[in-house]
Amino acid sequence: MQIQSQSQGGQTQSQSQENSFSFTDYQTDNFYDEMFTADGQVRSGYDQFKQRVEQLSREDVIGRQHAAERALMSMGITFNVYSEGEGTERIMPIDIIPRVIPSDEWNRVERGLIQRIQAINLFIHDVYNDQHILNDNIVPRDLIESSKCFLPACMGLKPPKDIWCHITGTDLIRGDDGQFMVLEDNLRCPSGVSYMLENRELLKQTFPEVLARTGVRPVSDYPTRLLQLLQHIADRPDPTVVVLTPGIYNSAYFEHSYLAQQMGVELVDSRDLVVSGGYVKMRTTKGFQTVDVIYRRIDDTFLDPHVFNPESLIGIPGIFEVYKKGRVALANAPGTGVADDKVIYAYVPRIIKYYLGEEAIIPNVQTYICREEEDCKYVLENIEQLVVKEANEAGGYGMLIGPKATKAEHKLFRKKIKDNPRNYIAQPTISLSRVPTLVGDHTEGRHVDLRPYILYGDGINVIPGGLTRVALRKGSLVVNSSQGGGGKDTWVLY
């Protein structure tokens, strides 16, 4: 859909100057700002954007923002929220002021993510096979065996090409010093890539001339790269690939259908697949068709009720046995979630050192592990200043932001930690970097993170950009869409 401004034009020069859009009154408020330095200078890469936008009227910029929102709704780019007692469908809000990352910064991020995925993949393989890292006590054995995401059924498993984490979304943040840090890893069913792709399409229509002049790396080939990855792990000529969704009521169903459509493959749910004759087969109007590769968007434990959760109604009975025999490929591999555990996250720098003999290029956020006595004592005594997270929650749930919580909430989380210290980590409250964001007819700073997407097939490819999530509520540090967040296009420069 073509985005068109509602501005009527025809203004005199004086009217144009008076009504022109401007960043003059924008305040960084002592936070690290992605667009401006502390003394108000424009950062590298934003020059073309600032120059062009300030040639427009306020009405024109606001009109483009509203047009982008209408386009999102008309294209059906929505997600479901279940936390409010009933399923609510919403658009994923977009703010049309992009986040720009210069090439030198991105090149370091790319190297760091490739290093991290290499090490995590080796770690998962080791955990389910020789367990050298556990025997050497680099990662405590009881930590793995007590993880909700450790699947004993995967012991001895060797996935195609020895790749476990084919698709990863790693969350990055910047603190006051402007350096990127890893906030968490998402390896089971990372979501949001469809919003990355659609945000770029919307910005192409909103500011086409700025994108053309600025030299922004493309992200539109993601579906092609994803399909190539899936075909690679099949190791068969012309494999049949499908996307497995939990169904239309899943919060990310739009993304599942979008990616299937973009790749030109079938979108299926558990009703469409059956194990027959030792293979996974898809029901079609012409009979059963053998499936070679499944991009699963359901959690590990729901995949096969015969092996994992017997109450699962969205899995395929018997699929795990077919997988173990090498007759179907799964992305991501079952068992990958063991590295999603937020307590395991705290050990990733040690994991990198153990397998690669290198220091982590992108550091973790400082993390306190509540299962460790000294760390737990510190967390309980300083919970008012910390962010506390449950080991296996996502989407901003199961989390306490100490400085913004009540005394009653502090007391509740202290009890939770004492009752089950294994299930919690804590981190300092970091002032996430900010990006100018449209609020009414002007801009204000809003906190952001960044989720780049990494594909591991024939090599490791980091998509140049990712989903910048923005906390649209003033002062909020929670960027998740289910908690009032939105998205921005991420421009990585050549």
Automatic annotation (TrEMBL):
Regions of compositional bias (Low complexity) in chain numbering: 1-17
Region of interest (Disordered), residue spans: 1-20
SUPFAM superfamilies: Glutathione synthetase ATP-binding domain-like (SSF56059)
InterPro entries: ATP-dep_Glu-Cys_Ligase-2 (IPR051680), CP_ATPgrasp_2 (IPR025841), UCP005522 (IPR016450)
This protein's name: Circularly permuted type 2 ATP-grasp protein
Source organism per UniProt: Larkinella terrae
Pfam (any one): CP_ATPgrasp_2
Residue ranges annotated for the Circularly permuted ATP-grasp type domain, each copy included: 98-471
